[in-house]
Amino acid sequence: MSNAEAPVAPEQEEIDLGPANQVIDKYLNLKGALMPVLQEVQDAYGYLPEPCIHLIAERLNVYLSQIYGVLTFYAQFHLEPRGKYIVRVCMGTACHVKGAGRIADTLSDMLGIGHAETTEDLKFTVEHVACIGACGMAPVIMVNEATYGSISVKKMEEVVEKYRAMD
Amino acid sequence: MAAFEDQIRVLICQGTGGLAAGAKPVEEAFQAEFDKHGVDAKVGKRCTLVGTGCRGLCANDVLVDIVIPGQAAVTYDFVKPEMVPQIVEEHILQGQVVEKKKAGPYYQKFLEKQMRVVFSRCGTIDAESLDDFLAMEGFSGIKKAVTMTPQEVIEEVKKSGLRGRGGGGFPTGVKWSFCAASPGKEKYLICNADEGDPGAFMDRSILEGDPYGLIEGMMIASYAIGAEFGYVYVRAEYPLAIKRLQKAIDVCYEKGFLGKNCLGLGFNFDLRIKAGAGAFVCGEETALMASIEGERGMPRPRPPFPAVRGLWTKPTNINNVETFANVSYIFYRGGDWFASIGTEGTKGTKIFALTGKVKHTGLVEVPAGITMREVIYDVCGGILNNRKFKAVQAGGPSGGCLPGEAIDAEVDYDSLIKAGAMMGSGGLVVMDETTCMVDIARFFLNFTRMESCGKCVPCRIGLKLMLDILERITEGRGQEGDIELLEDMCYDIKKASLCGLGQTAPNPVLSTIRYFRHEYEAHIHNQRCPSNSCKALLKFEVVDAACKKCGLCYKICPVDAVIWEKGQLAVIDKEKCTKCTSCYDACRFMAIE
């Protein structure tokens, strides 16, 4: 843990544990509560801050090692703050056949970040995902909840510009 | 549709595909027109806007059906909000179909060979409306089922010949009887909606388009097995499906259709959604149960099978979404009716997700026993840009690629396995001459390696080593003996892996070697990619003899590296070129290598 290089998020020490406690209260006596608790706490904070993980371990009476085991196994849990706009590039078979690799490269060139990385201004996070399930319109990207189908390199640029212009 | 005689219905496709293509603005445009004209009063009938689930032809979204009682339904495709005023004015108010905007004859062809059973409600009813569901036979299956004993219900399912639609093809009735026979009062029912196969999205369409149908299928199973508690394990990547299913479950609880004494029929069934968290291996039943219990989703050896010792160590029955959806129809129309569709070994219909280089991508439901060729050429209109068909990949990462000579295979569990693929979940990815088979094998292996849970060595390390070899080959650094080494490793990994993921992961490699060995050889011996798709081996030069001077490459190039004028051959400026392959994809004459 005492790695001098490790970046410490400035809000690390002053995180409001209220929302996390509320989630835990809801699931306290249910079987198999760990995953839904982690999912909902992540929804509340946008990622899973370390103090919250310690709190969950303590209140659900689960070992930290077990929680980290679950966190690192599933693709959807994040231990770092994430961007406001999450750009998911679908890498499913249909998208692959129709050139998703190129779309992903273009996006990386534009934003200067690769898979699972976030821009410094916390505006964009890029994720390469297995399959969004909109294969009929491959290649596909999603920005937060909005899906953009039949994406080309040029269209990709328009979409990114559109979100860049928003605050 | 006899159920809605009293109203004009405007059906707007609002599956994920439809919404992505802009279904919401279209709906708003219709609403605005209705308000403007006061349509209800003018035509003397109620005009209802219905947001339906997916109806299959996702490539042409937004699809809008106008259903006027006493007339055939008319389908418009590629609908944009600006087209709406014309449709409302001419079609709904004056009864004149807008011929120009109507879906072409291909839409008829698309539907002709299909047999929509499980999808009969998707695309015709409002997915979120319980009343619509009840008007279309909804919950009549469970009412029929409770008039039989649980044992008779299982017999009926056995008689129908339904086999697991998740891909394994195990007889559903037999599976139920195992769990029903297990001692103990506490049993669980799980619906596997962790549709992780890239290129398959039929489960999601059922969840989005007919959530009540799934609930009904699960109720029948719960009654037959005596399981009073059920989970639907849905991929977290499907937010809309989760939302619609949750809404349907909430409504059912409100109405007393779920919970204690369901529908007043004297049995209890509680149902809950469990959202997955992004792990492909969780589609494997033992891993899925571990995930519900809040552990890492790692498979465990079987036996003991879930029917004996499953979730929370209690007997558990797990079926796929499409399997449960089929169950309702068996009870609407009888097991004999179901058994009359399909082939000797595969009964009923199967939903396929057709994607890749076909003209009409989307979901099709066909009776088992139709040939692959009919599905690709008759239903989906053949290959895009009139290129040559090369292969179809069936069954996702655990399936295989079938070449042109094998696509006369019937779609049923057994003949597909014989041909070297498998039914799998039903994803069919069509590939043309621009798709490199070595790259496809690499793609699938990359996927399965990333998704391997790491518990057993053959899968964790074997797949990684195979991937290294394939990457080397696609970069032009293949060596003599690589193909034989790959084959050897495939057999070992298939034999020694713990769960289905590892046991089937080598299939794409095996089937591409079996049918496309020459492509592997070209990569290894001549450092050449016959399909010109492996980037490291591309030259990016225009083949003058093939160039038709059309300028498509010039228009598409994002960095202006193509030099072209009308009537001239194109030239690619290698200084500027970023090797993005846009031009290669755009060229219809294979004139870039």
Largest interface: A-B, 47 and 61 residues
Mean pLDDT across every amino acid position of chain B: 91
CATH architectural arrangement of the largest domain in chain B: 3-Layer(aba) Sandwich
Q: Trace the largest sheet of chain A across and list its strands.
A: 2-3-1-4-5
InterPro entries (chain A): NADP_DH_HndA-like (IPR028431), NuoE-like (IPR002023), NuoE_dom (IPR042128), NuoE_N (IPR041921), Thioredoxin-like_sf (IPR036249)
GO molecular function (chain A): acyltransferase activity; NADH dehydrogenase (quinone) (non-electrogenic) activity
Pfam family, one (chain A): 2Fe-2S_thioredx
Cofactor (chain A): [2Fe-2S] cluster
General description of the model:
The complex is a heterodimer of chains A (167) and B (593). Chain A is of the alpha+beta class and 167 residues long. Chain A is 44% helix and 12% strand. Chain A contains seven helices and five strands. The longest helix of chain A is centred in the last third of the chain and has 13 residues, at 153-165. The radius of gyration of chain A is 18 Å and the shape is elongated. In chain B, the strands form four sheets. Chain B has a five-stranded mixed beta sheet. In chain B, helix 10 runs parallel beside helix 12 and helix 19 runs antiparallel to helix 20 (482-496). Chain B folds into five domains: 2-104, Glutaredoxin (3-Layer(aba) Sandwich), CATH 3.40.30.10; 130-339, 3-Layer(aba) Sandwich (Rossmann fold); 349-432, Ubiquitin-like (UB roll) (Roll), CATH 3.10.20; 437-526, Up-down Bundle (de novo design (two linked rop proteins)); 538-593, Alpha-Beta Plaits. Chain B is an alpha/beta fold and 593 residues long. Classes of the chains: A alpha+beta (167), B alpha/beta (593). Chains A and B meet through helix 2, helix 4, helix 5, helix 6 and strand 5 of A and helix 1, strand 9, strand 13 and helix 18 of B. Chain A: Its EC number is 1.6.5.9. Chain A: It holds the Pfam family 2Fe-2S_thioredx.
